Each structure stands twice: as structure tokens, then as C-alpha cells.
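Q: C-alpha cells for this one, please.
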Amino acid sequence: MAGYRIRPYRDEDSEAVREVFATGMNEYAPALCLHVLRQPWVLLLLGCVFCLLLASSRSLLLPVLALTLLLALGRQLLGCAWSAYIERCLGDDLRDIRAAYMDIPGACFWVAEADERVVGTVGVRPAGDSGDSGGGGELALKRMAVRKDYRGRGIAAALGHTALGFARQQRGCRAVVLNTVMLQHEARALYERLGFRRDRHYLLPTVYGRLANCTVTTYRYELP
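A: Here is the predicted structure, written as C-alpha cells:
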């Protein structure tokens, strides 16, 4: 027994969809901090601060306290940056899901419903809109998310198959494309099981992207 159903988005789902997306994205914050902490320039900076303070103070307590403070400050700054990214997403296509997905040709949004609440989401829209990678004849898969306590039930795969089935019905659609960041290991494994293939791999072309070594991998599903 599946225990869930996939259905098209309804206007009353709006807050639940936004909450599912934001909660899922917030789960990546600790992994982001560890990823940044492992960068060579960060380790070098922390090492230099520790050595300089140890040499100048001749005490172990001061450099340890300073590093603790720096790590706490860095964690706070990264958390704020990640929260700002989530807010930008919520203010983009998720601000008015009907206008972004349900009211334009070649786009749609679905939710997974279980226990009388929304537990998963996914959408597709023409690639190239709002900065999506791809071009004419391609759809972008977006906002794939499943509540943590409902994972492992095949909901994400069912959402993916629903989106791909919709794409196959669109005249002139040649492929479905999507973007992932380096933290989304489980999502990448899911997309590859669905039949997506890695297309491009690049460094996010921003100052933050270069400092954090934030890489983006694009996936592509060719339609027959």
C-alpha cells in the first residue's frame, strides 16, 4: 500500500508547499558549513590565526577561544546567507505557484499527499525562465522536495515519474533538465535512478561561489 497520492497543485496548498521546500533546504545548512570549513583557504586562515595568537600570548586558552568565536561567527554568517537564498526562492516561483506553473503552457506543479497533508512537491516549467538552464524544447524540473519523515516510501521517485510523464505529453519537448548543488547527494542519486544523465559541472560564478567552492551539476533526461 503506497499510502500517498500525487495530484496537481491547488491554491490552498501554497503555504504547505513553501514550508516543505524551506524545511528541506534548511537541512543542508550543517553540510554547507562543513563543506566550507574543509576549504584549504579556510583551514589555512584558522591555522595562521591559531599560531599567531599562540605565539603572541604564550597561552593555549586565547587561540582556542578565538577559533571558537571565529567558527561560531562563520556558522552564523553562512546560515544567514543560506536563509537569504531560501527566501529568494520563496519570493520567486513559489511566491505565486499558480502564475508560475499552472497558468502557463508547458508547465505544471504537483504535490504528494499523505495523512491528509502535503508531504512532497515537484514542478516543471519551460527551461530558460527565471534563469533555468536549457533552451527551447526543454523543460526544467524544479522544487523537488519530500518531508524528512516521509522519505524512503518512493514518493520522490513517484513525483519524478509524474513530471517526466507530463514532459512526454508536451509537443516538441526534447529533454528535461535540472540543476543540483554539491550538497545534494541523495537527490543526485535519485535523478540518476530516474534516468537523468550528468550534463555539465561548473563553479557558481559569484564571489561566494568561488570562496565556498560551490559547484553546480546539471542533469538532462532525453525524451524519445
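A few notes: Residues 24 and 148 are 7 Å apart (CA to CA). The mean pLDDT is 91.
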